[in-house]
Amino acid sequence: MKLAFDIAKFITSKVFKLLLIVVLILAAIQLKKRVQQWYEERAKVESDIVLLNDSLSQFKQKQLDVLELMKANKLKIQEQIDLQESLKKSILQHKENEPLFFLIEDRLKWEAELKILETSLSSSEKLQQNFFSIARQGRKTQAQLKLERDQKMRLLDQKKEELIQYNWYEKHVKKISSTIILIALLVLLAPLINRLFWYSLPGAWVEKRPPYLLDPDGISSEISFSCDSSKQLKIQLNEAEKICVKQNCYNSFDEDLERKNRFLWDPKAWLISYSAEMINMTDFHNPNPQEAQITLVAPKAEDDLCKISLNECHGLILKPGQIIAVKGDVHLSTQWNFFSIHNWLRLVFRHIIFSGTGDIYLYLHGGGDQIKGESLRIKEDHLVGYQTSCPVGLVRNENLWHYLLGKCNLFDYRFKSDKFILMQNQSSPTDNNKTPGERFFDAILGTVGKFLGF
Predict the structure, then answer these.
(1) In this structure, what is the dihedral angle of CA atoms 321, 225, 216, 393, given to the nearest 10 degrees?
(2) pLDDT tier at 378 (50, 70, 90 boundaries)?
(3) Which residues lie across from 414 on neighbouring strands?
(4) Based on C-alpha coordinates, what's the Rg of the chain?
(5) What are the pLDDT digits (tens) for 341-350?
(6) How many CB atoms lie within 10 A of CB 199?
(7) Can you give the CATH number for the domain in which 404 is found?
(8) By the 8 A CB rule, do 124 and 83 touch?
(9) How many domains does the structure of the chain reveal?
(10) Exposed end of the chain (fewer CB within 10 Å): N or C?
């Protein structure tokens, strides 16, 4: 099962990224081929338009030549008609001057001249028929040229429409490409611009604001703190004492202890209990007069266990996710506040408050300790808890470049108080092997959790 899980993890983290890169490269190659083919098709349309224009010019010249030929042929036909009329008149006049039959020589000469006139008339008629035939052929040729020219014109109009479409696509593709590039630049630079805005305006303004105070009541003696670096805590339970422990956070206990499953640590605050994984806990109760022991362990080897003792505490703000056990009369409550600029800038509107008398056991990443000072700055992810009577201020991170790269938070916490403040040495570990989808949902859920005070 573990092998299958590891293979699936490798596929989702490594092979998926490689496959995505390959797909993007292939898509870019295919897009380049398509663009090149598009330009070739447009060049072919432009070449066809040039050829069609040349062909139309040739057709026009042919039509002019045919028209000139038909005009010349028409003149020749008219000449033959005039010639025939002249010959017919000459024949009629010649027949009127027919010599007497006994004038043999004159008559032979007359007949010879008549035959010449009739032969000339017959030749002129044949030549006229040839010219008529040439005229008919010219009209057919002219009609054929007009038909072909109309076809070429329609094809030319079609090619021009195609060229207009290609030019329209090119114009709008360039405009769309410019828009896409602009949007890509905005998307890429949006985080940088956003961080510069928050660093320069709200960040500079909130530094000058007075610190935020949740509850003025409460003194530092209400809370005591102890830490054990041995990775385990041995707790002694007196008669009738109870302790509620998370699963997998204890390794041994006296057999005389009574155990009972506790689905939610605080049913009234079921959402907090569920979100902080304070579910399916175990209540250990000592019914005997003798002391009984239970040993708590840290969830991870690099974590240290610590104990916070509350003595009629008015309020302590803690990260509930790091609590592993609760002993005594400890109460949980929440308080909302939307009227502080500090809460808006760090997106924390609900505060989870522990109060009462008892002990709270929790783990610290890489160890930690209670700190005090007249002026302290603590990184946001290193702060575990503080007293509700402790004023909280925000100050910008001095390393602007790291903040712009997203490697650190914008604000550090500023404390000027002798109240209880708890810090851990390392920030909460993150899983660097998560897929982009997991990181996306973690970011959303982390923002929602921060809003709710977790």
Answers:
(1) -60
(2) confident
(3) 377, 393
(4) 53
(5) 888 887 788 8
(6) 17
(7) 3.60.160.10
(8) yes
(9) 2
(10) N
What pLDDT is stored for residue 213 in this prediction? 85
Question: Where do we find the tokens 């030019």?
Answer: 167
Nearest CA among 321, 340, 280 for reference residue 454: 321
Say if residue 45 is in the same domain as residue 155.
yes
**Cβ proximity of 364 and 394 under 8 Å:** no
Whether 226 is in a domain gets the answer: yes
- Regarding whether 440 and 351 lie in a shared domain, the answer is yes
Do residues 192 and 271 both lie within one domain? no
The model's pLDDT over 192-244, given as tens digits with 9 standing for 90+, comes to 888 888 888 888 888 888 888 888 888 888 899 888 777 788 888 888 889 99
Tell me the two tokens of residue 301: 């080897």
| CATH number of domain containing 152 | 1.10.287
User: Where does residue 325 rank: exposed (0-12), middle (13-18), buried (19+ CB within 10 A)?
Assistant: buried
Q: Which of 200, 229, 259 is the last residue of a domain?
A: 200
* CA nearest to 307, candidates 228, 387, 386, 241: 228
List the domain range (segments joined by +) for residue 158: 23-200
Phi (first) and psi of residue 395, to 5 degrees? -140, 145
Q: What is the dihedral of CA 362, 364, 367, 370, to 10 degrees?
A: -70
| Residue among 259, 215, 256 nearest 238 (CA) | 256
Measure the CA angle with vertex 45, ends 39 and 47; round to 5°.
105
What DSSP letter does each residue of 399-430 carry, written as one string?
-HHHHHTTSS-SEEEEEEESS-EEEESSPPP-
- Report whether 240 contacts 286 (CB < 8 A): yes
pTM (whole model) above 0.85: no
Tell me how far apart the alpha carbons of residues 316 and 354 are, in angstroms, rounded to a whole number. 5
Tell the burial category of 159 from Cβ atoms under 10 Å away from its Cβ (0-12, 13-18, 19+).
Answer: buried
Whether 229 contacts 304, CB under 8 Å: yes
Domain presence at residue 69: yes
User: Is residue 3 in a domain?
Assistant: no
Q: Is 7 within a domain?
A: no
